[in-house]
Amino acid sequence: MGNGHTFTFAGERLIARPSGALHWPAARLLVVSDLHLGKSERIARHGGALLPPYEVVDTLTRLEADIHETDPAAVISLGDSFDDMAAADGLAPAFRDWLDRLVAGRDWTWVTGNHDPGPTGLGGHAAEGVACGPMTFRHIATDDGTFEVSGHYHPKASLRIRGRAISRPCFLRDDRRLILPAYGTYTGGLRSRDRALAALMDKGARAILAGLPMVEIPMPR
Amino acid sequence: MILRLAPADVGLSAPAPPRSLEALTLARLADVLRAERTRRRGLPPPGGGARLDPMDAPAPPDLPAPLADFFARRHWVLHPHQREMLARADAPSLLLIAPTGGGKTLAGFLPTLTELAESGHEGLHTLYVSPLKALANDIKRNLRTPIEEANLPIRVEDRTGDTSQTVRKRQRADPPHILLTTPESLALMISYPDAHRTFAGLKRIVVDEIHALAENKRGDQLMLALSRLQTIAPGLRRVGLSATVDDPGVIAHYLARHPDPCPILHADPGPAPDIDILPTTEAPPWAGSGGRYAIPDVLREIARHTTTLVFHNTRAQAEIFFHNLWLANEDDLPIGIHHGALSKEARQRVEAAMVRGELKAIVATGSLDLGIDWGDVDLVIQIGAPKKVKNLVQRIGRANHRYNAPSKARLVPANRFEVVECVAALQAVREGDLDGDLRLDGPRDVLCQHIAIVACAGDFEADTLFAEVRSVGPFAALSRAAFEECLDFVATGGYALRAYDRYQRLKERAPGLWGLRDPRAARQIRMNIGTIIDTDNLKVRMKGRGGMPLGEIEEGFANTLSAGDTFLMGGQVVRFETMREMIVEVSPRPEKEPRIATYIGYKWTTSVQLAERIQRILHEGDYSAFPAHTRDWLDLQRRDSRMPEPGRLLIETFPRDGRHHVCLYGFAGRNAHQTLALLITKGMEEAGLEPLSFVCSDYAALISGLRPVPDVARFMHHEGVRDALESWLRGNAVMKRTFRNAAIVAGLIDRNFPGKRSSGKQATFSSDILYDTLHRYDPEHLMLKITEEEAMRGHIDFGRVELLLETVGDRIDQIDLDRVTPLAAPLFLERGIVPIKGRAESRLIEEEAARLLAEAGLAPD
User: Residue A105: exposed, middle, or buried by beta-carbon count in 10 A (0-12, 13-18, 19+)?
Assistant: First the structure.
């Protein structure tokens, strides 16, 4: 359980990792979504709170650990990798170098998201979506998606134990769709019971809670 | 000592009978004892040493003719303390200690009325600040009578969160003579660049219920705002009105411009109150919190009195009680409910009906708790133990404002332990032993907010602001370095990594001169003014277009609701339908039994003093003051276990509901117990004993886990309590809660955004993430220091734990039982359970997930 929760989707064996990353060992593919790099900088730029400016270093540290442990040949960052285009451009040189080192030698795709609709000028390539085997990877789930892996919603779910709710980011899955939690350190969540998610997922949908211990529950509605 | 409870109404009374010599002597004795106690605690002596003797006071000036005529027509004479306030109208600071409704509001306003009647003052003359919006309304009504009847040229207005934007704007340009407001609204007013003009002619400020404000950050914020006003209007005189308190000197120090002296006046003590436990036909349960068993008795009392206030300690309890009261209300007595989670409209309806005299009773919580002046209330019923003696006195003060008739209050203990608590509280009231919980050093998160507020009004000199802040009693000892840290935090975020040079909030325009980099930031700062941190609440309204707003529930509670669940709101049972954006939609569902709402009112804690008194009573073994059912119950505790005694520590262990529990009776206050529980659960986790959570009251700590714990004492080594706890504390829920509050007050986290669309919670994230991130990358940051300061001040009573462990030594009695004991039972109702992240929690999460999957018919993958 420590290294993730294994399940079958689109006939493939996938692993949901406690960090919120998705690992497809047979394809040597690692998928992360909604990194929101540069969020604290963007908030400050818009005159908001001056949050601790450490979320880029924290997110990249965790991403590096996931890459180190899974050694993927390909990485998909599933959109909203940057909190906005200016955050991508304004990334400190040290972080840019760090990202370049992670990208080097891997087939790296930056899927565009609603926060970062254009190319980022970093290594790897940008795309609106990726088709890989039976699966399609895109930022936002479509109405008729089949074997579709997406992000965007930052789903979270809670589990009640002894009258107390434990709330965590989660993966949502049914037979057709898989939605990833937000990977970035400064990201909130949308309750799985929200209409947007409840309408998207089929009756028998499940939620896999990120963090430890990783458990799977029926998707709370 | 005798209790200083005096007659009231608006503060005017029929001619007073002469005070008896005996009462005078006793009152004096009480003062001497009180001063002595203050001295022994090493606090500043009352009034900076200046005790007032009426003989020394200058003769009061004559009232202006219109006022004097008005009083004569009504056959009213002034109370001595009211005359004295008039005589001392020129004092820079003055503190009046008078019982609730003891005519102190008029005493505070008399100098204002006199000055305004005599001179044609232009603009704002007197600012009145109270902790409650409702009080401002009330005072406005009460001032109207003398002003209208004496035909005085005085304009009175209030300004609270409920005041419309148009009126607010007009008030800043054209303020009334007397403005009634709250600390938050005042803070907002001083944040405008035109504050100089608004307040330039200000002469007096009256701070009502200052004893209540001084207990929390609202008071600190207010005093910082006063220091600003004092600069704008140097001749400003301050008057504080306080209920009877244990340490008037501390309040005086709090109120006065440091180091000005602040004389203290004491109002006439009234007759001793008539307080007792309400006799009930049924005995209270072992453990219970609602007082439901007493409903027939409460209805009987309501019918027998003109107007009754029924107070509860939490909103949920008030709701449930009100619901059941209605079910049993066969005579259809008109009864209303009033608490802070109800919508403004609902509250105003009840207040209006009350003023018109249409209600026989109101079921209420803390939202009605301070100083509301409703003349016809002749009985106060307190359901559940009054957690602090002072609250009890306040609530009693509400009743029976007729002169020279004792105030009447009846207590309804919700369970048998509370019977003991009530008896102890009664004893304390009779002995005039008022507990207090005053903070002496100003919290720096409030200072951070103040700096931002000052910046909104215009550029400022750091030196001037520092001097101003040091004139505030609670900040008198603030060091320049500590101030600079706050300034840097507001300006740049104060991070070791200087990431925000381009986006600084404040810019240093010239050496020592600071101002907002972007003036538009002022809007954001203003929207987040205030120091009251609510739990995240969601609005509740009826389903459908334009559905009626009902009030609010805690987000945590909303998260546990599924479609079809029912709960109580405003006295009616409603059914959860859906959550649309951040609004909970419900439909009426009168026929169903409700689930219990977990939103709460004020979180009362018992005072340490009361806890110690209870331990004494229990140990001394004279139970004659208790009803028979409670005596039997205490005897049962003796038979099955034993009674806690001073100098020893009783520990009980027992299984219940598939868990193992450890109960420690420290009688050392909630904070000390919390620290003790942290220490023990740390040891338990390391020993593989799988602790799950703990909860603390002022009497005891209850630890729950998955395994029995033999020899609890081995986890209680008092050497190195501090060292051992530090790293453990860091990751604890208690510290994270403290951090969240401080971060919101200091402005690190915004509660409100301009033009924010409420589209779920995607945009915001947990403050726990910020806390963890700071610890990892910037452990010296100011917010972590403030969190620690707050924790040391409030939540982590290291000193007391060390003292307890030292006193007890090895005199620890662990008794292993097979079921819960009488004394332990009430702990299962205690709020504020602290979860422990560890093996036990993981195990439960895994079990629950497996159960849910099985229940849904889904196979584990």
Answer: exposed
